[in-house]
Amino acid sequence: MLGDTSDLDATAARRQGLQALTGIIDMASTALILHQYDISPFSQKAQKMMGLKGLSWQSVEMPMIAPKPDVEALTGGYRGTPVLQIGRDVFIDNWMIARALDEFDASGPVINAQGGLREAALYAWGERLFTPLLHAALAAYQSEWDADFLADRKRVFPDVDFDTLDVSDPDRRSQVRAYLGTVEAQLGLGQDFLGGTQADSWDIHVWGMVWMIHSALPALMPIVGTFPPLTDWYERMSALGTGDREDVEIDVAWQALKEGPARPLPDTSDQEPLAQWVDEVVDISAGSADRGSASGRLLAVDHEQVVLGVEPIAGEAAQVWFPRFGYHLKQRG
Question: Domain spans of the chain?
């Protein structure tokens, strides 16, 4: 059962481990820089992580559509949102961002508090819920977009048939209700948050999707309204805020790259199938959408992450951290 003694002991052990890792980063001198744009539900997830942990951070706004020269230089070619920068380390995807923030500051609430397998399951669950919400948004707004924006979205989501999208598709609405019904059932266990008395990544992955409905999909709000505990939970999550934000320009990020620290790399096991690729140039891309392909020297790989070495600006190296699952590698040439 969630919240029993074994879960609490495991969470405490993870917290102690994270406290040991925070020696990697000098929190007093290293800024958290989030490259993002506000209307993305995935950016909202990262912002909510900042709020959960009560962190100060800087925001660099990236363009909504390609080209995105600054973030592509920083990441080696990846252009998705959000991207977290801590000194010379660049973290791709909210999966890696959550892990990085827990290591950056272990004194506050733990984002990934439920254990690796449970965290991965809720992360994947949130990605699945995004699909019907994305289709609803594309159906609702594509007639309002200019040609460049529409062409970009068709490139990012090549599996979507834009010509057949229907705002009132009853099957899609049923899918959304099914997903939200599972949230309602979890909240029905009598706790304030999905995993217990403290919000964590379970809540963040779900909240970002419900935020998308609240902010951009009014046609789906009647579905949300049929689940009062979900509404109460959403208000509790909203009250966590987004931390202490400062909007800055890209020059701040380049200066942080020049002056900031770099984390020690994880070990690459001899049993790792890609171990022989270390030090070779590789390409890495997301399997779910076209967010650009990053290229760089493979520095390390294990069951959790892939680290590429890139040179965003002349003479300055960065370490770019990708999740291992959901991203695909291939050797260059």
Answer: 116-238
User: pLDDT-based confidence at 135, cuts 50/70/90?
Assistant: confident
164-190 pLDDT tens trace: 888 889 999 999 999 999 999 999 999
The rounded radius of gyration (Å) of the Cα atoms in the chain is 20
pLDDT at 247: 98
Q: Which CATH number is 116-238 given?
A: 1.20.1050.10
CB of 278 closer than 8 Å to CB of 299: yes
Strands 316-323 and 294-301: unpaired
User: Residue 166: what pLDDT?
Assistant: 84
Lowest mean pLDDT among 83-97, 123-137, 260-274: 123-137
Q: Which residues of 198-215 are buried (b: 16+ CB within 10 A; e: fewer)?
A: ebbbbbbbbbbbbbbbee
3-state secondary structure of 328: strand
Whole-angstrom distance, CA of residue 116 vs CA of residue 222: 34
* Contacting residues for 216 by C-beta, under 8 A, at least 6 apart: 39, 137, 140, 141
User: Which is nearest to 152 in space by CA: 80, 61, 45, 213?
Assistant: 80
Cβ-contact 105, 55 below 8 angstroms: yes
Quote the tokens at residue 213: 């409905």
